[in-house]
TrEMBL record:
PANTHER family: DUF3431 DOMAIN CONTAINING PROTEIN (PTHR37490:SF3), EXPRESSED PROTEIN (PTHR37490)
Domain of life: Eukaryota
Keyword vocabulary terms for this entry: Signal
Organism ancestry: Eukaryota, Fungi, Dikarya, Ascomycota, Pezizomycotina
Keyword Signal: yes
Signal peptide from the UniProt entry: 1-30
Keyword Signal: yes
A Pfam family hit: DUF3431
Protein name: Uncharacterized protein
Source organism: Monosporascus ibericus
Classification via InterPro entries: DUF3431
Length: 279
């Protein structure tokens, strides 16, 4: 079992680790401007139109251009390439991004980057029943969800769901159209809630982790079968699947910290013969 999940912060995703991948001609190009690196000349309207990847890792990173130039498709993803929650046999985000089907995202409006059900599906939170739940006295996400939902959402527009389920970890694609289907005031309210809530980041982040799919128009329980999800999202259609997992795709690791030397070196210090690109 996972003893300590890393702090999966939607807050970080939203404010600090905002990584926007803009797809142009079906290919990804990376540009991670650092503050002291010389920057290309700004076009006359003050916005860089050539940026395809922005890592807004610092508070002072300028993301104001997003308001003017919101890309067609955005992917929210954590900064580290190898992480226990990446839905890949090597926990590698690279093939996940390479295989990700923009055409599916364009059709679906929102697409989770994780298909396996373990952690999050089919019923992670029952807001009413779970209210006040703690883990040995420490408040849990499901224990605070009901209250948080009332603070985050407009109750008349978004009644409290009976059950919330989505595969974990706040990595997903979303289209501009989906984002714009909400008024900007909603996003301001979410941000202000994050800034003001007395909840620990590990809780407020996870509340959003289990809210993004609802915010972006999906049912509160958004758990497509693993077979359908891998096929539509990643074009992986020929594996044998149960409802919740497909053979050889993802195993919940014994710890949330990958071993030193991963992906070359495994849990027992064995050579894994990783053949993907590195570096
Ligand atoms: C599934 O298809 C891919 C590419 O078409 C191939 O590399 C892989 O071996 C196939 N897997 C199975 C289990 O047939
Ligand atoms: C890696 O390759 C070595 C040498 O060919 C082999 O003995 C070992 O079993 C392989 N390890 C795995 C995990 O496949």
């Amino acid at each position: 079992m996972l003893t300590s999940r890393p702090i999966v912060l939607s807050l970080a995703t939203f404010i600090c680790l905002l990584v926007l991948l803009v797809v142009r001609d079906g290919s990804f190009l990376a540009s991670t401007p650092s503050n002291d690196a010389p920057r290309p000349k700004q076009p006359s309207d003050g916005y860089r139109h050539d940026v395809e990847l922005v890592v807004a890792s610092m508070k002072n990173e300028d993301t104001s251009w997003i308001q003017k130039y919101l890309p067609d498709c955005l992917i929210f993803i954590h900064a580290s390439r190898f992480a226990w929650h990446n839905d890949d046999p090597d926990y590698d985000a690279l093939p996940t991004l390479r295989n990700f089907r923009i055409s599916h995202l364009q059709e679906a409006g929102y697409a989770n980057l994780r298909c396996v059900w373990v952690i999050g599906c089919p019923a992670e939170i029952r807001p009413v029943e779970d209210e006040g739940h703690t883990n040995s006295g420490v408040p849990s996400t499901k224990g605070v969800f009901r209250q948080a939902w009332h603070e985050l959402m407009m109750p008349e527009e978004a009644p409290l769901p009976e059950v919330v389920g989505v595969s974990c970890c706040s990595q997903f694609g979303v289209t501009r159209e989906t984002i714009r289907s909400r008024p900007v005031e909603d996003y301001v309210r979410f941000r202000d809630w994050l800034l003001r809530t007395p909840l620990e980041d590990s809780l407020s982040g996870r509340v959003l982790e289990f809210s993004w799919h609802i915010i972006f128009g999906k049912e509160a329980v958004h758990c497509p079968s693993a077979q359908e999800c891998y096929c539509k999202t990643f074009g992986i259609c020929n594996t044998t699947c149960s409802e919740s997992a497909c053979d050889g795709r993802y195993t919940l690791p014994p710890s949330s910290t990958l071993p030193d030397g991963w992906p070359r070196v495994g849990w027992e210090h064995e050579e894994r013969n990783f053949t993907g690109p590195l570096g």
